[in-house]
UniProtKB/TrEMBL annotation:
One of its GO terms (cellular component) is membrane. The lineage of its organism: Eukaryota, Viridiplantae, Streptophyta, Embryophyta, Tracheophyta. This is Uncharacterized protein. PANTHER family: CYTOCHROME P450 (PTHR47943:SF2), CYTOCHROME P450 93A3-LIKE (PTHR47943). It comes from Solanum lycopersicum (Tomato). It is found in: Membrane.
Length: 63
């Protein structure tokens, strides 16, 4: 599961670099880590906008 997420992340970075698109790596690493944690704990990914809204933080407080 982690290998798949990292592979997707590297593929995204590679495509962006090939296209000449600038990517804020720091902004992409936090959701990557959150996705891996959610997959391991809850068995599913969260939505990217949920990360910004604090939904992930709320989920962890419930545990």
């Amino acid at each position: 599961m982690r290998k798949k997420e990292v592979r997707n992340f590297v593929t995204f970075i590679n495509r962006a670099a090939t296209s000449g698109v600038e990517v804020d790596i720091s902004a992409k690493v936090a959701p990557l880590n959150a996705n891996m944690a959610c997959l391991m704990i809850f068995g599913k990914k969260y939505m990217d906008d949920d990360f910004d809204k604090g939904v992930l933080k709320m989920l962890f407080k419930k545990i």
